[in-house]
């Protein structure tokens, strides 16, 4: 019996043919749906040269590149500050002091429940902050609160025996967290951390609502141009793959970090030599 057939019976010839038929039908339905969408785009003139002509101009290209750079700048600042805020709030949630724990819990629950757009508008309108700091502040408060729960859950997921063994060695709580719990919890945290950073990357598009010149704002300016017959669909077809590519690149970086962590010297298994014959004790003549 192979390893793949341990948990279930291997499918028979009739089941294999039925599964292949299902796969063929699903593929045909998907191809038909794609063909229908392409037909609608062609029928409405979305591939006309007039709609795609703006992307040939250097000014339009520079506008898109500048918007992409502003998006990456906002995401970089929000990601770093969110990780830092999440670590601080998670430490507060895990504190032994009740007032600190209650205060951190109140902050986390408040900003997790508050919509990101409301926080961005509040900072931008009420506090009269510039668009970039307002966008970064809103993203940091929301994503930092979510990451705080991710960090807390990751630390809590470590086996209780690890904590007890570290305390039995005389380590303080800060040392237990830094040297035992957090390094082991990172493996459980990493997928959720990357998922939340992807959310932060996509939420940078909310900056166009407060006139921040990010990537989506640049696309909106092009799509609303009457001189090129409102090329909305071509702009979407250009901008969407860029966003998808950035999210996939972020996921690839997460997988690369996870693989390096598994190959780390600190986490690799150590081969221990087999025990050999012990040295004779002084005065022991049994081996002679």
Count, helices: 10
Rg, Cα atoms, Å: 28 Å
Pattern of helices and strands: HHHHHHHHHH
Beta-strand content bin: under 5%
For the largest beta-sheet, the strand count, sense and barrel status come to:
none
Please estimate the helix content: over 70%
Number of strands: 0
Task: Give the helix/strand class.
Answer: mainly alpha
Please provide a brief summary of the model.
This protein is mainly α. It has 10 helices and no strands.
Topology record:
Blueprint: H1 13-43, H2 49-52, H3 58-93, H4 98-113, H5 116-126, H6 131-156, H7 160-168, H8 173-203, H9 215-223, H10 232-262
Helix pairs in contact: 3-4, 3-6, 3-9, 4-6, 5-6, 6-8, 7-8, 8-10, 9-10
Structure description:
The chain is mostly helical and 288 residues long. Helix content is 71%, strand content 0%. It has ten helices and no strands. The protein is flat, with a radius of gyration of 28 Å. The mean pLDDT is 84.
Key features?
288 residues, mainly alpha, 10 helices
């Amino acid at each position: 019996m192979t390893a793949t057939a341990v948990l279930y019976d291997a499918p028979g010839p009739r089941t294999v043919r039925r599964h292949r038929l299902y796969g063929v039908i699903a593929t045909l339905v998907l191809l038909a749906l794609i063909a229908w969408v392409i037909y609608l785009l062609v029928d409405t003139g979305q591939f006309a040269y007039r709609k795609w002509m703006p992307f040939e101009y250097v000014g339009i290209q520079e506008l898109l590149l500048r918007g992409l750079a502003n998006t990456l700048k906002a995401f970089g600042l929000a990601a770093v500050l969110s990780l830092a805020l999440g670590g601080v709030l998670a430490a507060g949630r895990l504190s032994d002091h009740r007032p600190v724990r209650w205060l951190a819990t109140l902050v986390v629950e408040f900003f997790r429940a508050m919509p990101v757009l409301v926080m961005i508008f509040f900072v931008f309108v009420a506090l009269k902050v510039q668009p970039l700091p307002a966008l970064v502040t809103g993203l940091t408060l929301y994503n930092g609160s979510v990451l705080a729960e991710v960090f807390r859950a990751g630390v809590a997921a470590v086996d209780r025996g690890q904590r007890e063994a570290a305390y039995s060695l005389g380590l303080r709580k800060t040392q237990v967290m830094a040297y035992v719990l957090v390094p082991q919890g990172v493996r459980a945290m990493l997928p959720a951390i990357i998922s939340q950073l992807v959310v932060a990357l996509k939420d940078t598009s909310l900056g166009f609502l407060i006139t921040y010149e990010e990537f989506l704002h640049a696309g909106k300016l092009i799509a609303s141009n009457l001189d090129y017959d409102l090329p909305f669909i071509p702009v979407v077809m250009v901008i969407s793959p860029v966003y998808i590519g950035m999210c996939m690149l972020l996921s690839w970086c997460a997988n690369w970090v996870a693989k390096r962590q598994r190959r780390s010297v600190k986490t690799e298994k150590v081969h221990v030599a087999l025990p050999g014959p012990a040295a004779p004790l002084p005065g022991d003549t049994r081996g002679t």
